[in-house]
Write a structure and sequence with these properties.
Elements: E1 3-8, E2 17-23, E3 32-41, H1 44-51, E4 68-76, E5 88-92, E6 107-111, E7 116-118, H2 125-130, H3 133-145, E8 153-156, H4 162-173, E9 177-182, H5 185-193, E10 198-201, H6 207-214, E11 219-224, H7 228-237, E12 238-246, H8 260-265, E13 270-272, H9 283-299, E14 308-311, H10 315-323, E15 331-334
Parallel strand pairs: 8-9, 8-11, 9-10, 11-12, 12-13, 14-15
Antiparallel strand pairs: 1-2, 3-4, 3-6, 3-15, 4-5, 5-7
Helix pairs in contact: 3-4, 3-9, 6-7
Length: 335
């Protein structure tokens, strides 16, 4: 048997992703399940892995990209007890240093004790997939790193992306005043539709000046997934005892180190640099967080109104659009 999938044989940009229909399906171990993927999520980490630029380590070549998917279990290993054939599941692969990804393919193998979870019957597979990486990230950022009280002013960078839109809707459900940044008009419109109170076009306006003009006494929290070019400006926007949550470097560069005393000088600030994998350290934690994310989705506290679905074979074009920041909201591949 052969399967369809995307292979990267040499590190590079979007053109390095090649659609193939002759790939060997994975071989199951005793404690693995085989999932026939229906949808695979597309994430910024995928772009970094395909370029060979991921800070947690890169896969051995050739490899199949993709770190989240949803589908149906078609086979289980002889010692599997937690899952059965026919179950609809959503999963994410690996860890910071994982070499096994393989979600951009028709089939994938997942250990039964890994980050895999049976999904509710009334939840569509595309939504279940789209809410794994970015939904879980939104969950730990807003539940463990900083939970606003009603009226708190927070800044969420990248408000037109998949995670940004989830963050905005969740923050509004908690009663926060949300400031966000976005470049493309469609992304700014989506952020506004999701409830953002102030949307800054960072290509024509300095976000630091804009925030300080609107909130001269400072804001409570900055959620920054961009990195070096926004980090110090974001710190300067915080009020005394404010919180900076730095969770990524989508801008391409990590911030330069700063002395701890800098945080004192700026007003006893809190600085966090969390990573998702530390907040889904066990299958039980993964399942509990994802259950809550799915519940928020079903009650309307978060939404996926901007979900983009594209065929697997066109993934190169989708990656190009992501690099050019033209994709509004979350994107998933139909397999």
């Amino acid at each position: 048997m052969k399967m369809r999938g995307i292979e990267v044989a040499a590190f590079g940009g979007p053109k390095s992703l090649v659609f193939r229909d002759d790939l060997a399906p994975p071989t199951l171990g005793d404690h693995d399940v085989l999932v026939k993927n229906h949808f695979a999520g597309v994430n910024f980490k995928d772009l970094l892995l395909c370029r060979g630029a991921y800070h947690g380590g890169n896969p051995n070549l050739p490899f199949i990209p993709g770190i989240e998917a949803a589908g149906v279990i078609t086979e289980v290993g002889p010692k599997v007890s937690r899952f059965t054939v026919g179950q609809r599941v959503a999963y994410m692969t690996g860890s910071m240093a994982s070499k096994h990804n393989q979600c951009y393919a028709e089939y994938n193998r997942i250990g039964e004790t890994g980050c895999i979870h049976a999904i509710p019957d009334d939840l569509p597979l595309d939504a279940a997939c789209a809410l794994v990486i970015q939904g879980l990230t939104m969950h730990y950022l807003t539940s463990d790193c900083f939970t606003p009280s009603p009226g708190d002013v927070v800044l969420v960078h990248g408000g037109g992306g998949g995670l940004g839109l989830l963050m905005i809707s969740r923050m509004k459900a908690l009663g926060a005043v949300v400031v966000t940044t976005a470049s493309h008009p469609d992304k700014r419109a989506a952020a506004k539709t999701n409830g953002a109170d102030h949307v800054i076009d960072y290509t024509s306006e300095d976000f630091e000046e804009a925030v300080k003009t609107r909130f001269p006494s400072g804001i409570r929290c900055v959620f920054d997934g961009i990195g070096k070019r926004t980090f110090l400006k974001g710190l300067s926007c915080l009020q005394k005892r404010g919180t900076m949550v730095l969770y990524g470097n989508a801008g391409g560069e990590h911030p330069d180190p700063i002395a701890p005393t800098r945080l004192t000088q700026l007003g006893s600030l809190v600085l966090m640099r969390p990573a998702l994998y530390d907040f889904v350290a066990s299958q039980a934690e993964y399942q509990a967080r994802l259950d809550e994310v799915y519940a928020w989705y079903k009650t309307g506290d978060i939404n996926l109104d901007q979900l983009t679905r594209v065929p697997l074979a066109t993934v190169s074009s989708l990656h190009e659009a992501l690099v050019d920041r033209k994709v509004v909201g979350k994107a998933v591949l139909e397999i």
